[in-house]
Write a structure and sequence with these properties.
By secondary structure, this protein is of the alpha/beta class. Helices cover 19% and strands 31% of the residues. It is built from 16 helices and 40 strands.
Length: 688
Amino acid sequence: MKPRFTTTERPGLGLFDPVQDRRFELETSSPVDPSPVGTDRFRFPVDAAVEVAVDQLVLPYVVETYVRDPDGSPLVEAEHYAYEELPPDEYCLELHAPIKTFVRVDGEVTVASSVDRMEFDFGEETAVRVGARSYHERPAATVTTTADPEDLMAAVSTFGSALKTTSPERSFPTLRGHPPTVELGDDLAIPDGLDAPDTGVHIEVPTDRQSVYAVSTLAYYLGADVRPGERPRIVTADGFEHSLRTDRGFDAEVARVLQQVFLLDCLTRTEGLYPVDLHERQAVEDDVSLSFPDLYDAPSAERLAAYLSVPFDAVRDAVPTWRLAAHVTPDAENATLLPYLVDDLAVVRRADAQGRRRARSSMPSYVDEFVRSVDRGRRARSDEPYVSPPETDALEQAWLGDGRVFGANELRRAAFEHRDRETTADDIDIDIVCNDERMREEVDVEDGALYGDRADLPFDVTVHANCSTETLAELLASETDFLHYVGHVEAGGFVCPDGVLDAESLDRTGARTFFLNGCNSYRQGVSLVENGSIGGIVTHGDVGNGGATAVGRLVARLLNAGFSLRSALAVVRERRIVANQYTVVGDGGVEVAQNESGIPVFYRVRSTDADGEYGVRIDTYPTSERGMGSLYIPYVGDVETHFIAGGPLPEFRIGADELGYYLQMEQFPVVLDGSFCWSTDLGVDDLR
């Protein structure tokens, strides 16, 4: 599905990406009449384009923008407080918006931006072409494979065919296409055109499924074939080889190579179409003996050998915190989900039954209040094995295999099969169900603060109270972007005034995503995913009403700010011990709403000994469309350097007045001297 163009209620051009369910508006001074045009006149790939006659285009917020000449060479880079006047000529404006957007214009261009607004003025009414490209690519084909490890090697070897380039720009998420899907069958069948790119690189691993799974993301990123070999290693056509069996261990070495090659690609790409001042390059350039200009034009195999000649300790601190680490068991059916993990550039780690324990059914000691189950004494003891994956340094964790998962996203195949559901360009639909008046505080309908308080994004929020089993069944079956359930859940299902509704009895689920904030809602959430949903947040045991209310309100605001299900829960776990009872089932990487600036952030602010000065550390959270390799600029102080998104940035020093000003630019979570709050709730007076 291609991005769509529409007119908007206020004069302007609306863009909608039905794959990622993202919206973006370009305001105009008068109504426009977009007409479809070809995409061939754009220097960069676009999926769809229209022509409109306008004298200016206005964005309701600032996005990173490049103005390029017809050959693609950058002329101007614009962010906050930019002002550039360009004489009449042919230009292409590249907008890093929620939907990748290009504006092609022949004439003069003035770019002006403030803290919360960006304008492109063309002097007079001018015919401009607007092109759009989805940040997400669908799989282009399906590979059928048996469970035999060598057949799986052949299947994984096709993943690199989805790369749009083997240059260092492959480190940009928009230039990494989605690998082909994988199905299990009786024979290996690979469609034509899915050969790995000619990089001269292959990876050898033992003939067991787990080893193949562990190198799947690395093989994809390197555009490498996977072949059987007694010693796990990387080999190039010109004789270079690198062992994957080191003191670190196989899994750790595979992850290390992926991260080091990725980082050095990010540094090398600054010699190409995006010559930005990159913090990570400044941090390591003096410690590595690499010529980035020469490496930019070098063949893939030669570049790889040069990268791996650098000791990891020389670049370790510059590697961004990885978005996702996935623990995968050797079950054959797990091969079918590898393309989705690889598309997220996940670090894949081998897992086995050692992480499994027996599930406990006793109520945690911190729950001693009114709980969200009808009768805690009725809950039967569960003998179902559960999984507690080991901690990693990644921002988010996932488990792929059998077992009931604690502390990580429980991936389920059905969720990924549902990701391509058709969506509309209408408002984001949020349905809130409150089936117990004693829990009304969580939904906060009086002040409307739970969802939809952003002027830049259209929400349609509906609150439903005391739903009967029939009403709730209809609601769960109807199409909605997100369903937030507040109420009791027991072993048999959702508790309604007239009985209990079991989600397993539904023919289909219409809610794309959900949050079931009641006791022991895990099984109901799994049923929703199996019946049509993409993912949701559920609970494993009893949750006290007070803690559940706090978690529910915090999750809602994080989702509203563009955090994914997984990253929202990761932030919540830092703040509340009761959050350990919550987990994500399905595809936890999905977001309900897009972030205003593209990448969700979490500010950690501390007072310093200097008068009126604060130390600010910003944690960044890559998303589905602004994934690993995206750039982020912190709008604090006079910082103009770019950073690779993922994890914490170095601490900045800033005065109270300036910090108070920046906190009002966008709503995001903040920890101020150990106390959690929201940026828009803080004023300059709170900082003095």
